[in-house]
Design a protein that fits this description.
mainly alpha, 14 helices, 3% strand, elongated
């Protein structure tokens, strides 16, 4: 990494509301794959290609990056721009996006950092609402699903009966050999549930309906679904991820002995850490944030000045 500076390892001045964007940007800087996609997108050849040719040239890889969803926009926006630092938007209302990736996050203008830090969500973009009446096609899909499940359940029942010839169905039920089809009229897609529900409007007040719905949600919310409350992603977690990245980059640039002479500030900042363990955690974060990368890809700063490559 050329032109190494404190902006590459010291993230203390990154505001809390920029931490998520900064993490994606800085870890993306470590990917040779992402840098190569940027090189192809901004190259003179891409400007001479027609849309179909351009998509064949780099579109599949852009789609691969976009597989992580909206966070990819943090660094993808501006990929087809050149790296002119003083590029001015032609329209006063244009977004302040430049093509400066892979420069350090902290070297971007404040207005561009703020813009890139606004990571969109389906909730705000579509937009989504917590609860609404479904569409007619949903009813068709649910009916088809339920019929398929019932048909399969009856097939299994006949299979059991075939294995026990001469035994009455009542006896098979009593012995637990036969099971009733338990078909729930609900479908799940993209974190949403579409189902058949009944509301007793005339039997309960709005408050009672609300209490009942709230109780149902607590009992039926699918386990394992990510909640939008942000738990597990507190600012200190993001800062820790950036600190680990900083230590990895420092180990790539200096030996620990050299650091004591040439980068005293870093030694003081990370004096209480086990640097090589933090470096391995940075590798884990690298693949967690950018799961579309090959499992064999290592950050550009992974090899250490001291000779470690694992």
């Amino acid at each position: 990494m050329s032109d190494f500076s404190s902006l590459d390892w010291n993230f203390d001045n990154v505001p809390d509301d920029e931490l998520v964007g900064c993490c994606y940007w800085e870890y993306a800087r470590e990917s040779a794959f992402i840098r190569d996609v940027k090189r192809r997108c901004e190259g003179p050849q891409s400007r001479e290609l027609r849309m179909k040719e351009l998509w064949e040239y780099c579109g599949d890889d852009v789609e691969r990056i976009q597989s992580i969803g909206y966070p990819a926009e943090v660094f993808l926006r501006g990929f087809f721009f050149d790296r002119i630092e003083d590029r001015k938007p032609k329209h006063p209302k244009a977004q302040p996006i430049t093509g400066r990736f892979p420069c350090p996050w902290q070297s971007l203008s404040e207005v561009e950092r703020k813009e890139r830090s606004r990571i969109r969500t389906d909730r705000g973009t579509i937009p989504l609402v917590p609860f609404e009446r479904g569409q007619a096609c949903f009813a068709e899909w649910i009916a088809e699903y339920c019929q398929t499940q019932r048909t399969e359940a009856f097939r299994r029942q006949e299979e059991v009966k075939g294995k026990h010839p001469g035994i009455r169905s009542e006896e098979l039920w009593s012995a637990g050999k036969l099971e009733s089809p338990d078909v729930r009229p609900s479908l799940f897609t993209a974190g949403a549930e579409v189902g058949v529900f009944k509301i007793e409007w005339t039997a309960f007040t709005n408050e009672e309906l609300y209490d009942g719905f709230h109780r149902w949600i607590r009992q039926n919310r699918p386990r394992g679904l990510r909640s939008p409350d942000g738990r597990g992603h507190k600012p200190r977690d993001r800062r820790a991820a950036l600190d680990r990245l900083g230590m990895m980059r420092l180990l790539h640039r200096f030996t620990l002995r050299e650091m004591q002479e040439k980068c005293v500030e870093a030694c003081k900042a990370f004096g209480g850490y086990e640097w090589y363990k933090e470096r391995k955690r940075a590798l884990q974060t690298f693949h967690k944030l950018l799961p579309f990368l090959s499992s064999s890809e290592r950050p550009l700063a992974w090899p250490t000045k001291g000779g470690r490559s694992k």
